[in-house]
């Protein structure tokens, strides 16, 4: 089995399939188990591919957009996506590149999380018709296994020697952190997922994040050893911002896809605040704009680059939340940046009790994600880059009072020229 490492946007050889050409051009491929064979299979006709998401939270976040955009492109180009919602594997928890075990979730919480994730998937993929994407729960087969039956049928196809070589396992052991048998078995469960989907739906391709490479390899090898199936694995790159931060994380927390956890306006503003250096990459990865338009926008400089950021924000918000929500977010963004904050939806909501407890300006800057720490916030304030209700504030000891929020229980906060928030206290 060949492991192809791919440089974003630069195909290693001439390809036959439009699907791989597009995915490589957009930078959505990091590793592939057998690029040439997968290319031939994609060129020969429709392929069924799957991506899996454990239900560890009530919403997916923007870090999940990479595999989802890959599945979206595959569907647009004639292939069939399956999304596996991990009702079974969520009961174990993926240990990949974590220093400690995930907390075990109750069945009721897993079911509630799956319901929230399902609503986001339904927006991102077309579920209608015979060729529509399928949503399946791996609890359907994993909970049917008896322990001895599982070991007898699958255990002989895995060796501890091989499993110990995967980076996801080695990283935990190198850190001298315990790895439970429960977690160690996770990669076996994910491998069985792939084989079950191959049996039930003729699925031959798994798409996942680069941290899932070892788990995906196990599934490919199980299909070959157990039933002589040719299965393929493809990973998307781990995306970091120009500052080196992991994509999808901010000082205020994860950037959620579900509107109940993050409003479409706040989601839009996250993309509007993209660093200049990240605009070309994000346009390629997270929008469906033609590549000639991506290139044109990527070449803009100065004030014109802000228009590219608005296009980026509106395009991604349209994909995740729909055209109407994106249009409304754009209008709100224009109004907020023009200083017309009346009647706008807030970008952030905080409990009113925070004022009574004594909310400092530095804390507020961290809460809305404009700073990563109080020290970072202090430097912003002392540098004259912070405005509260359009007025520069240079005192880091400044406290937020009821007089700052006015009759509408809201205030505007800005850091520099391009980061603005409307905070409502409720």
Automatic annotation (TrEMBL):
How is this protein organized at the quaternary level? Homodimer.
Instruction: Name the job this protein performs.
Output: Catalyzes the attachment of tyrosine to tRNA(Tyr) in a two-step reaction: tyrosine is first activated by ATP to form Tyr-AMP and then transferred to the acceptor end of tRNA(Tyr).
Compartment(s): Cytoplasm
Record-given protein name: Tyrosine--tRNA ligase
SUPFAM superfamilies linked to this entry: Alpha-L RNA-binding motif, Nucleotidylyl transferase
Residues holding ATP: 249
Q: Which residues form the Plant heme peroxidase family profile domain?
A: 127-225
Record has Cell membrane as a keyword: no
Keyword hit for RNA-binding = yes
């Amino acid at each position: 089995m060949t492991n192809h490492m791919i440089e974003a946007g630069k195909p290693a050889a001439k390809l036959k399939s439009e699907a791989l050409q597009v995915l490589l051009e957009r930078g959505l491929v990091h590793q592939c188990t057998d690029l040439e064979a997968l290319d031939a299979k994609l060129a020969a006709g429709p392929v069924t591919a799957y991506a899996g998401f454990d239900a560890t939270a009530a919403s997916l976040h923007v870090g999940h957009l990479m595999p989802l955009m890959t599945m979206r492109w595959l569907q647009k180009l004639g292939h069939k996506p399956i999304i596996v919602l991990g009702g079974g594997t969520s009961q174990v928890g993926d240990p990949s590149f974590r220093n400690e075990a995930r907390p075990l979730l109750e069945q009721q919480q897993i079911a509630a999380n799956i319901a929230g994730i399902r609503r986001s998937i339904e927006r991102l993929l077309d579920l209608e018709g015979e060729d529509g994407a399928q949503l399946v729960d791996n609890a359907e087969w994993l909970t049917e296994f008896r322990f001895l039956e599982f070991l007898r049928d699958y255990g002989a196809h895995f060796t501890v020697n091989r499993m110990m070589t995967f980076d996801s396992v080695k990283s935990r052991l190198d850190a001298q952190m315990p790895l439970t048998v429960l977690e160690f078995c996770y990669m076996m469960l994910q491998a069985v997922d792939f084989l079950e989907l191959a049996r039930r739906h003729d699925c031959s391709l798994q798409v996942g994040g680069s941290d899932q490479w070892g788990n995906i390899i196990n599934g490919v090898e199980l299909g070959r050893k157990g039933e002589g199936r040719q299965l393929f694995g493809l990973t998307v790159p781990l995306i970091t911002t120009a500052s080196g931060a992991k994509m999808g994380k901010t000082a205020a927390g994860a950037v959620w896809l579900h509107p109940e956890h993050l409003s479409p306006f706040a989601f839009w503003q996250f993309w509007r605040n993209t660093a200049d250096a990240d605009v070309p990459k994000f346009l390629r990865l997270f929008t469906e704009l033609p590549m000639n338009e991506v290139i044109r926008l990527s070449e803009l400089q100065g004030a014109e680059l802000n228009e590219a950021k608005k296009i980026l924000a509106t395009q991604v918000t349209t994909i995740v939340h729909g055209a109407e929500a994106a249009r409304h977010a754009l209008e709100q963004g224009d109004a907020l940046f023009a200083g017309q904050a009346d009647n706008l939806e807030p970008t952030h909501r905080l409990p009113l009790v925070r004022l009574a407890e004594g909310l400092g300006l530095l804390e507020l800057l961290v809460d809305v994600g404009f700073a990563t720490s109080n020290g970072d916030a202090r430097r912003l304030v002392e540098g004259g880059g912070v405005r509260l209700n359009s007025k520069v504030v240079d005192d880091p000891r400044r406290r937020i009072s009821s007089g700052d929020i006015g009759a509408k229980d809201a205030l505007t906060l800005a850091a520099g020229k391009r980061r603005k928030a409307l905070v409502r206290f409720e």
